[in-house]
Design brief:
Layout lengths: L12 E7 L9 E8 L11 E4 L9 E8 L10 E9 L1 H10 L6 E4 L1 H4 L5 H8 L2 H7 L2 E7 L5 H15 L39 H11 L2 H4 L1 H8 L7 E4 L2 E4 H13 L12 H19 L8 H7 L10 H4 L7 H4 L10 H16 L41 E5 L2 E11 L5 E2 L9 H16 L8 H11 L23 H16 L18 E4 L5 E4 L8 E5 L5 E7 L4 E8 L8 H4 L7 E5 L4 E5 L21 E4 L2 E2 L2 E2 L2 E4 L7 H4 L8 H6 L5 E5 L1
Parallel strand pairs: 2-4, 3-6, 3-7, 7-8
Antiparallel strand pairs: 1-2, 1-6, 4-5, 8-9, 10-11, 11-15, 11-24, 12-13, 13-14, 15-16, 16-17, 18-19, 20-23, 21-22
Helix pairs in contact: 5-6, 5-9, 9-10, 16-17
Length: about 675
């Protein structure tokens, strides 16, 4: 039988599969037809959308298809243009399990309903995925075919769902009188007795089946994350072989099992580390569903979460985000499967620059291949977050001067003169004592002093570097509340470091920890030419420079290329001497204390006896350019500072309002600030 000849789709159309009835062993057959999906016009066809993983495609199965061409105004039963389509075993098992024995079922599944051989069609349909899953009557989450443990796993989830999430319950996260299961394990794999902090209501077999359930590919795929986030949460269902459950009940019950403090489950689980990762991914999915705002305002921040998800095509790390972004942001990401992942990332960066007037995408830099200013989707992803603004609310002054070369404006601040010392994360160690031993050794190497803990100034510098300045002392919270475990004070940090040193010297095994190096690109420390302790990428080396760029909140490490005067981007960094705009505005705050305000996303200032100040005192003597005015809008009960022009009329001005017009490149130059141009390659 020939391959199925796909008729072309019109721009507002999608294909649907009318799955023919049959017995389990019957051949898969169906009819493909076109319908308009236009939510704006109220054109919403009836169908169910299948959310599944493609899986292994090396042993395809065939489904026999025919097209239906209804005449205008009437439904035709005549089919033509028959042929076959190859589908993977997982989809084939889903269709066999889902088809009815005595009537047709209308489904949407991408492998059949999108012509996978037509790149242009694929690109167009990928951009409509959010609408498909949002406006389907329901989404069927196909976890996979039946397994020996499937019934036990699903029954365990039902047990929790029925017991802890009754329909009338207002607080579904309650723990209600659970008692240990009669066959709950009493010893671990080494035969050591287990003492539970809380009762374990399941048998060991149940825990193992749940662990395997959570490890199914569907839970970890990035596309399925988007699909279920936009699904109708009340009508959608979960299928695992013949096992079926309402998605809403499944979601709440699984999230409860993932988050409740059951006790020492590491002694029971087959792979505790993998299970923890899977739990994180599932809980993140639930949080995204329950969040009132399902669309991100930044593809840069949204991209970081894809690190926890699996993608067979790295380009889909960006494409799968489109539906999760606000429409104007989604336009930064143009779907084009003829381009490489690096080309797509570079294109998204340039479009972002044109639309948003900032260089935020440089916070993602992790690349060693050209262009180094564009994120490498094939490497671990992490957004560099800082509670400061090195660019001092300036708009970017940058342009793509030729393919792969981005010219940006900024200033050279400092230079790296020695090899950085790694500050490892605690999760890479067997126990906290081993971690702290390594950390204290790094502190001694950085300071060159075995008794560094006796010097408060030295310890403060270390703590500031470790936390990237995210401390109570440098936060607007200082004016509102005392220090806490979420944001410690320097004084608390000093006591902690002294406690670590003393406890180590006394051979103790109990340690208090309240902060760790973050898992960002800049996890190494070094002394700069200016003598400052800066956090930089581990790949940094002597001769690299630290710069402040207009339109970028963090500092950046660049590597000069002597042959042509260009620069490679090494990655984002934290330099306490330039993190708050000192490169462009200086460090005289006119007697005001400064601190980062998370609510406003900019610095605020305070002085004894004075109200909280939103304007930067370093600009008090700098008038606004002609035609500009400053105003203080209140958004979500929070006031902030923005600027507008009397002749504002262009759409991009909406983004301009958050940038101080006094911080433009030419106005900084007029005030004698030595702005440079860097060519990034």
């Amino acid at each position: 039988m020939p391959r199925f000849p796909y008729p072309p789709l019109l721009s507002a159309e999608l294909r649907l599969l009318e799955l023919h009835p049959g017995l389990p062993d019957d051949r898969l057959t169906g009819t493909v037809f076109h319908r308009i999906l236009s939510p704006e016009d109220g054109e919403l066809p009836d169908f169910e959308a299948l959310s599944y993983c493609w899986g292994d495609q090396s042993r395809p199965e065939q489904v026999k298809l025919a097209t239906e061409r209804p005449t205008p105004g009437e439904q035709s039963d005549q089919s033509s243009d028959s042929g076959h389509v190859d589908i993977g075993p997982n989809l084939a098992s889903a269709l066999r399990a889902l088809r009815y024995r005595d009537c047709k079922r209308v489904l949407w599944c991408d492998s059949i309903c999108i012509n996978q051989q037509d790149t242009v069609e694929r690109e167009g349909q990928v951009q409509r995925m959010a609408d498909v899953y949002m406006f389907a009557e329901r989404v069927i989450a196909w976890l996979g075919p039946a397994t020996p443990w499937a019934s036990m796993a699903m029954e365990t989830v039902r047990q929790v769902g029925n017991r802890h999430f009754p329909q009338e319950a207002d607080t579904p996260w309650l723990y209600q009188n659970m008692t240990p299961h009669a066959s709950a394990p009493t010893t671990n794999r080494s035969g050591i007795e287990i003492t539970y902090g809380e009762p374990i209501p399941f048998s060991q077999d149940q825990w193992h089946s749940f662990e395997k359930l959570l490890d199914l590919n569907w839970h970890r795929r990035l596309w399925t994350h988007q699909e279920i986030v936009f699904a109708n949460q009340e009508t959608s269902i979960v299928r695992l072989g013949e096992e079926e459950m309402p998605w809403a009940r499944y979601k709440d019950a699984v999230a409860f099992i993932c988050t409740y403090p059951w006790g020492p489950l590491t002694a029971i689980l087959l792979d505790p580390a993998r299970c923890t990762r899977n739990e994180f991914v599932f809980v993140y999915k639930v949080a995204a569903i329950d969040c009132a705002v399902k669309q991100h305002a930044s593809w840069i921040d949204a991209l970081a979460f894809t690190e926890k998800y699996d993608c067979s095509d790295d380009r889909d790390r960006l494409y799968a985000l489109r539906g999760l972004l606000q429409p104007d942001i989604a336009r930064c990401i143009r779907v084009d499967y003829t381009k490489s992942a690096k080309e797509i990332a570079a294109s998204a960066c340039v479009t972002h620059l044109e639309q948003r007037r900032n260089l935020d995408f440089l916070r993602l830099c992790n690349s060693t291949t050209s262009p180094t200013w564009a994120v490498d989707l094939q490497k671990p992803l992490s957004v560099f977050e800082v509670s400061s603004d090195a660019g001092a609310r300036s708009a970017a002054s940058a342009r793509l001067i030729k393919p792969g070369v981005l010219e940006v404006a900024g200033l050279t601040c400092d230079e790296i003169t020695r090899k950085p010392i790694d500050l490892p994360g605690s999760k890479s160690f067997e126990n906290i004592k081993e971690y702290l031993e390594t950390l204290l050794m790094a502190f001694r190497d950085l300071t060159g002093n075995d008794d560094f803990h006796r010097d408060d100034k030295c310890v403060d510098e270390l703590i500031t570097a470790m936390t990237y300045g995210d401390l109570w002392d440098f936060s607007a919270l200082r004016t509102e509340s005392p220090p806490s475990g979420l944001r410690i004070a320097l004084e608390t940090g000093r006591l902690l470091v002294q406690h670590w040193v003393t406890a180590m010297a006394n051979g103790e095994d109990s340690f208090h920890t309240m902060f760790h190096p973050r898992y960002y690109p800049a996890t190494a420390c070094t002394r700069t030419r200016n003598g400052t302790l800066a956090c930089v990428p581990l790949e940094s080396r002597s001769g690299d420079i630290i710069v402040t760029l207009l339109g970028l909140r963090c500092n950046l490490v660049l590597r000069p290329q002597p042959q042509d005067g260009s620069y490679e981007v090494v990655g984002p960094c934290y330099h306490p001497g330039f993190s708050d705009g000192q490169a462009v505005l200086g460090d005289d705050f006119c007697g005001w204390e400064r601190g980062w305000c998370n609510k406003r996303h900019h610095l605020v200032f305070w002085k004894e006896g004075e109200p909280l100040r939103l304007r930067d005192p370093r600009l008090d003597r700098v008038p606004l350019p002609f035609g500009y005015s400053e105003y203080n809008p209140v958004v979500y009960h929070i006031d902030t500072v923005t600027w507008t022009h009397k002749d504002e009329h262009e759409e991009y001005m909406e983004n301009e309002r958050i940038y101080d017009p006094r911080m433009s490149e030419h106005r900084l130059k007029e005030r004698g600030v030595p702005i440079e141009r860097f060519r990034l390659i």
